[in-house]
Amino acid sequence: MLKCLIYVSVTLLFMVSCGSAAQQQYKSHAVQKGETVYSIAKAYNISEETIYNLNPDSRSELKVNSVLIIPSNSVISSGTNKNNYRDHKVKRKETLYGIAQMYNVSVDDIKKLNKELYSRGLKKGERLLIPAANKTTGKDTELAPGTKHYTVKAKETKFGIARKFGISIAELEDLNPDLGKGLNVGATLVVPEKIVLENAEIDEENFQYYEVNPKEGFYRLKVKFGLSEEEIIALNPYAKDGLKEGMILKLPKEKADITKDDVSEINLENRIKNKKMKTVALMLPFRLMGNPSDSTSNNTDLLKRDPTLRVALDFYSGALMAAEFAKDNGISVTIDVYDTEKSESKVAAIVSSGKFKNADAVIGPLLQKNVERASDLLKDEKIPVFSPLSNREMAMNDNLFQTLPTDAILQKTMIRYIKQHSAGKNIIIISDAKHTQQRDMIIAAIPSAKTVTPRGGGYVQMSDITAAATEGSENWVLLESKNPVLISSAVNAAAAMPANYKTRLFTLDKNDAFEWHEVSSRRLAKLNFTFPSVNKNISEVDKNPFMISYKNKYGVLPNRYAIRGFDVTYDVLLRLASDNNIYDAVYPESETTYIENKFRYEPSESRGYHNEAAYILKYNDELKFDIVE
Predict the structure, then answer these.
(1) pLDDT at 223 over 50
(2) Dihedral of CA 326/328/331/333: which sign?
(3) Which of 26, 190, 343, 578 could form a disulfide with 175 if both were Cys (CB 3.0 to 4.6 A apart)?
(4) In terms of Cα–Cα distance, which of 420, 469, 470 is closest to 446?
(5) How confident is the model at residue 296 (pLDDT cuts 50, 70, 90)?
(6) What pTM did the predictor assign?
């Protein structure tokens, strides 16, 4: 009698716990003496594996009066194993998404029947209970439940889309069996319905993307990458609930950067040892063939119409002055000048003429596509080509030197400075939706940084900044945007903050929006506005030998293009004279400084060389620029 009461109590408890959903899908069975899993499965016309999956403890022992969960009659129908469920043995590298798509069911449907999968991943060789396929109608009948179609956007990659939907690459490939190595813009993919991260773009220059291994936790990643749990979550918010196998993590790129303390300034004028004749080819777009007339009026009109010609002439004047300075230092120089006519085909014709066989270096052309073309044609001869004016990302070759620091290098320089001086500072980031990459880079370097999101109209108020600021401490505000409205409102708000909030303004990119008429230079000066720059500004009253010589020769002071022509050409000539060739004269831990520009070439991660030397400037009270670094 006592056993009967216990059995009734257990059965009632089970029924109350399961509720109405269980009544519809499952029923209970109290094990009788002499029953086995096989006999019970046969009695209910189901498989033994169905019982094992719904009752994991029954694999080891089947106790009398223990209660088993059994599929109800309402869900038993024809099909594999003569019921509504299928038995699936997990194979190597299979994923839940792949299995769900195979049987046209959702991942959640599988987990409901295999509850251990809520807390762990799949194991090779284990057997799963799979529900019958869902019958759907309409245009999405091909899709498994819980998935949808997604159109690939520009710059999106498999890593980015996997991150966006919180799945692994393997799961993405399972959902899309025909997926190749790359993605085409406009292609349609099958993805989970839920987005876990909005931005699917990949920034491979500043970050690496890592797929979490089985049983890998934050501690292992700290050992592997030297990153704390806080730093990882700062870049991957969805990791706050823990790491999962196959999760794609965005991590700072592993690179042993040369620090500012490692860099020393050198004067190559003191290291001249190779005084053999130096031949430099100067390729500039003069377009002389298209304008044969040399009349003063025609030349004046041409200069007004063609800004590229004005830049070329100014750069040329500075380069000639550099050759004169080199000769004064005992360096024999021949400058061969070629008119590229702004034409890629003309560049190819000049190079193919064989005139560069004895060239020690080529400076130019000015236009990026023409520089890339010249570099490509001269790479087999290993003749170094110096790009004088382009700071965009280029198609690099082993012989290509980019003399202007790229925007990425300027950003890296500014972040390094802020990180090195961030102790005791309260870092605040104000950025818009188009500058999430810059925000992520800052957070990766300084996880404690706070963020301020612009209001609906794309502006901020002083209260937005003070809410993130710390009274009595130095508040360093990093403003990342090209929107004049946001920049002017942030500058005005930061400048109006009470004196007990010590506020200084920074940016990784001093773009044209900071020159907008609504942005007060006085307020920027009050905030010690600090930014990275490829060059410093020399004063007109500076009695520099170059400035004096240029004024005496041409009757005017040099503009920035003439100074650029001098700095680039003089640095190339001095490097040629300081070593056997240009490649031997790449000194990654040494900086050369001239009139407005400085140079420190480092091999790029792919090929070629980038100038890593940049300035950090700030506004002073006289509305001029001081060199911070």
Answers:
(1) yes
(2) positive
(3) 190
(4) 420
(5) very low
(6) 0.63
